[in-house]
Automatic annotation (TrEMBL):
Organism of derivation: Promicromonospora thailandica
Keywords attached to this entry: DNA integration, DNA recombination, DNA-binding
DNA-binding listed as a keyword: yes
Family assignment from sequence similarity: Belongs to the 'phage' integrase family.
Family annotation (InterPro entries): CB, DNA_brk_join_enz, Integrase-like_cat_sf, Integrase_catalytic, Integrase_recombinase_N, Integrase_SAM-like_N, Tyrosine_recombinase_XerCD
Pfam families per record: Phage_int_SAM_3, Phage_integrase
GO biological processes: DNA integration; DNA recombination
Domain Core-binding (CB): 75-158
GO MF term (any one): DNA binding
Limits of the Tyr recombinase domain: 179-387
Protein name in UniProt: Site-specific recombinase XerD
Length: 394
């Protein structure tokens, strides 16, 4: 069987043989997108079933090879997206929730805008107008996420020589209207705590009473700066309340993928996010109470969990927090607000570098820009210094 006679994405003659086990095996050679011939086989109870099974495998393999091999300037954008998604799975480098986010952003934001175009028709001008319109009519965040996945997909097209350059590289930079970070005052924190303690504890309400987990979660967020997913991922073995001060180790996060059970991912958002923190007394006390409640669980059991013993979801905690703060005037507060409050408090006393390290950031620039509330107060020393410029007595 001469190699050059088999086009890329096709196969040669199929040979079927009976095995010692009594089953039949069908085999053939398939020419992959890299030009190499590879043996493909399938087994079944009959010769016909084995051949049918082999043809199904070849059809699936052929579709992938055909899409990759045939990508060119006249290919549809949808064909590129299919290849790009397969390429993401081939690398296996993305966390499952990031992979799901990329596909969702591509399907919801980008694909509808470009599915009618071929790759050669996706110009810098078209991409630029699309992103700026998305930022204006929807949000800067959506435009930024759309830009990320569009750039990744078109970057793959460049690597496969379907287009010469990535048009996303030439678009105008998306400018974001800067919003100042807002931290809670001590009085506002007390309002949050009071609202959480009183939520659904009035007489006459039907259903089970709150189990106190939300209050403990809030105290851990206030005393650690940890993200909500990181707090919910804390295990018994991550907490040490016997030391002074007590410590917790951030080493995972909670992930909820569409159509799949919520689970604990064994690493947080980034490598810098893995950290051991000393926590204040009020956080330690909240964790002690939870440890009593989960005393019978395994060392790697979660500190916070549902009544069925499954992980709490971050969306559930956010929703519950919105509900308890509905009539407090603090409707703007989210779990991330506690993170900004911690960053601001640490920065005021010990500087932005320590705040960044506590939050698990690789640079204090991110912490300063997004997490630390601006301090409008200027040191009183300026008044003392400027006394030198007082008018002379006459």
């Amino acid at each position: 069987m001469a190699r050059q006679r088999i086009p890329i994405g096709t196969f040669g003659d199929i040979y079927t043989a009976k095995l010692q086990s009594g089953n039949y095996r069908a085999r053939t050679k398939f020419r992959d997108v890299d030009g190499h011939l590879r043996l493909v086989e399938a087994s079944a109870e009959t010769a016909k079933a084995a051949e049918t099974k082999l043809k199904v495998k070849l059809a699936q393999r052929g579709r992938v090879s055909s899409r990759v091999g045939d990508l060119g300037p006249s290919s549809k954008f949808g064909d590129l997206v299919d290849v790009w998604l397969e390429d993401l799975d081939l690398d296996g480098e993305l966390a499952p929730n990031t992979r799901a986010l990329y596909e969702r952003n591509m399907d919801k934001l980008v694909r509808p805008a470009f599915e009618g175009y071929t790759l050669r028709e996706i110009t810098v001008a078209r991409v630029d107008r699309f992103l700026r319109s998305l930022a204006k009519n929807r949000s800067h965040s959506m435009a930024k996420q759309a830009k990320t996945v569009l750039s990744l997909a078109l970057g793959l097209a460049v690597r496969y020589e379907a287009i010469e350059r990535n048009p996303v590289a030439g678009v105008k930079r998306l400018k974001r209207s800067h919003t100042e970070a807002r931290a809670l005052t001590h009085a506002e924190l007390e309002v949050v705590r009071t609202a959480a303690k009183g939520w659904r504890r009035q007489e006459g309400l039907s259903g089970p009473k709150p189990d106190g987990q939300l209050e403990a979660i809030i105290e851990v967020m206030i005393g650690s700066s940890a993200r909500i997913g990181e707090v919910l991922a804390l295990r018994k073995c991550d907490v040490d309340v016997t030391s002074t001060p007590a410590t917790i180790r951030i080493s995972g996060t909670i992930v909820s993928l569409k159509g799949k059970p919520t689970y604990r991912q064994p690493h947080p958002k980034s490598r810098a996010s893995v950290r051991r923190l000393a926590v204040p007394s009020y956080t330690a006390e909240a964790l002690r109470k939870r440890l009593v409640d989960v005393a019978g669980a395994r060392p790697d059991g979660l500190i916070f969990e549902t009544r069925n013993g499954t992980p709490l979801t971050t969306n559930n905690v956010r929703r519950r927090l919105r509900e308890i703060l509905k009539n407090t005037g603090l409707g703007w507060v989210t779990p991330h607000s506690f993170r900004r409050t911690v960053a601001t408090t640490i920065e005021r006393s010990a500087g932005a570098d320590l705040a960044a390290k506590l939050l698990g950031h690789t640079s204090s620039d991110i912490t300063k820009l997004h997490y630390i509330e601006k301090d409008e107060n200027v040191s009183d020393r300026t008044a003392e210094i400027l006394e030198e410029l007082a008018p002379k007595e006459t």
